[in-house]
Amino acid sequence: MAYPDVDKGFNHNFRYEYCKIKKFILYYHKAFQTTDRLMITIRTRKGFDINIAGMPSHDLETLAKPARVALLPEKIPFVKPRLKVKVDDPVKVGSPVFEDKRNSQLVFLSPGGGRIVKIDYGPRRVIKEIVIELDQDEGYETFPVISEARLQGMERKKLVKTIMTGGLWPLFRELPFRDVPNPDIVPPSIIVSLNSKEAFQPVPKAYLNDKIDLFEFGIKILQKLSKTLLISTSSDDVFVQDHLNSYVTHTYKGFYPAADPGVLLYYTKKSPDENKSWYINGQDVLLLAMLFKTGKYPVDRTVVLGGSLARERKHLRTRMGVPLNHITKERVDDTGTARYIVGGIFKGYTGSKDSYMGFYETSLVLIPEGDEKEFFGFARPGFNKSSRSRTFLSFFNKSSMAIDCNCHGEVRACINCGFCTEVCPVDILPQFTYKSILADEIEEALNHGLLDCVECCLCTYVCPSKIELKNILKEAKKAYFLEQLQS
Ligand code: SF4
Ligand code: SF4
Fold first, then answer.
1. 339 with 367: CB under 8 angstroms?
2. Would 94 be classed as within a structural domain?
3. In this structure, is residue 318 part of a structural domain?
4. Do 84 and 1 belong together in one domain?
5. 458 pocket-lining for ligand 1 (C-beta < 6 Å)
6. Does residue 388 fall inside a structural domain?
């Protein structure tokens, strides 16, 4: 399998020099103060936090077992699924369900024990859902149990094979395309993001609370995969500072998407080699440790239910591939007008009420569609309309606001207002980059730093002309990736 060359397309020359100087100053500044390990604080200058109503509490409820769970191959980027099961087949937790046609070692395992009851296809035979009806007593496939002592003496190759056959290799993603990485390559670094600046994502206090030992074991596994681990958290996360301070290498201060691994890399990288760093979420480090400690495919997930239409907004301990209506059951005020957003307000997608949580998603947000007509809407002061610009009086409203899905207008031509540039966390000029893409000038888009784009969606959110900037940039990155694969 070939992997693309990504030495160009980044917005880096000035940044590399800046980071080298900054690191030098920070290192010596710290060295004179303390002998502690160096922890760097990243202060991002851009980004934006929407003060959205409906934030979840840190309370944690454990959900009952659902009747069904599912895998959604369609939602796993860059993977071309080849089925290893058919309807009516019995499966155990951890049985292979499908593999990637490009790399048959990359397998996706069953998140439940029972029977395959449905395989749902979309247009062009894209596999949308593979649904498993759960048995009362689920069977488990078994994998080798690896103790800490055994881990110490384990070769990297064997470790990689254990993670791959255990179905957890897709938890790693490689920048800048966010595809599943080539297992034969040693990454320049692995970034572990403990929390997200995006509203409605699980916080470490909820998913790590009684699992600190497991997390520490998971870090030992990562240390065998790359010499450099960058473990980042928010500078105001008291829980992490109390329990895992000795592991954290970077804290960040700033607005969304300051926590994104691509942003961290942008602020810390010192050479083009680092552009291909890998990342993994804090919660997923626990899954690696569980696989090794128990010899069973781990299906536990802590997810968040939030949004203005969720009556009970909290963290929920449940399992991978859980039905959305199992999460929302008696916890929402849905009169049929709610938009179900799976995976976060900015980075997620619209899900159907009858669908399931995907392999990567840990957040479900319910907000109003907002499609009802507003009488004299154009003349209203908009005290409660969330907006980055000063068009509405909401600019002075510092309390949280309920948002809906209404764009308040149609797509228009770019007016060169520069709002997208003001918020872009990685200093791309989105208005010029998207124009280069529309003109089929991919080289020019790369020169603007296309590959630095962290797909945060802020440029789309602030654009008064309603241009889908993030989608245009993301699709261009994807096309470039696929082109490089074939060349
Ligand atoms: S171009 Fe848009 S989506 Fe990409 S990083 Fe900048 S603001 Fe985010
Ligand atoms: S925010 Fe929209 S209208 Fe303004 S410069 Fe960017 S693309 Fe153009």
1. yes
2. yes
3. no
4. no
5. yes
6. no
Same domain, 225 and 80: yes
Asked whether residue 28 falls in the same domain as residue 77, the answer is no
Q: Which two tokens stand for residue 278?
A: 């890998």
167 lies in the same domain as 197: yes
- The protein residue whose alpha carbon is closest to atom 3 in ligand 2 is 414
Entry pTM: 0.88
Mutate-to-test residue for ligand 2 from 391, 423, 460, 463, highest number of ligand atoms within 8 A of CB: 463
User: Which atom of ligand 2 has the smallest separation from the CA of 462?
Assistant: 1
Q: Which of 215, 272, 210, 201 is nearest to 248 (CA)?
A: 215
| Each residue's pLDDT tens digit, 9-35 | 666 544 445 545 555 554 444 333 333
Place of tokens 């809407």: 377
Residue range 77-118, pLDDT digits in tens: 999 999 999 999 999 999 999 999 999 999 999 999 999 999
DSSP 437: H
What ligand 2 atom has the least distance to the C-alpha of 418?
Answer: 5
Q: Which residues contact 338 (CB under 8 A, 6 or more apart)?
A: 307, 309, 332, 366, 367, 368, 369
Q: Which domain holds residue 27?
A: 1-38+409-487
Residues with CB under 6 A from ligand 2: 414-420, 430-431, 462-465, 467, 469
Could you tell me the CATH number of the domain that includes residue 462?
Answer: 1.10.1060
**Given this model, what pLDDT does residue 13 score?**
46
Q: Are residues 157 and 33 in the same domain?
A: no
**How much is the average pLDDT of 181-188?**
94
CB-side exposure of 243: number of CA atoms within 13 Å?
A: 17
Atom of ligand 1 nearest to the CA of 423: 7
Question: What is the number of domains present in the chain?
Answer: 2
pLDDT on residue 371: 62
Residue 300 to residues 135, 297, 348, Cα–Cα distance (Å) = 17, 9, 20
Report helix, strand or coil for 11. coil
Same structural domain, 26 and 173: no
Question: Residue type for 36, please?
Answer: D
Q: Is 257 in the pocket of ligand 1 (CB under 6 A)?
A: no
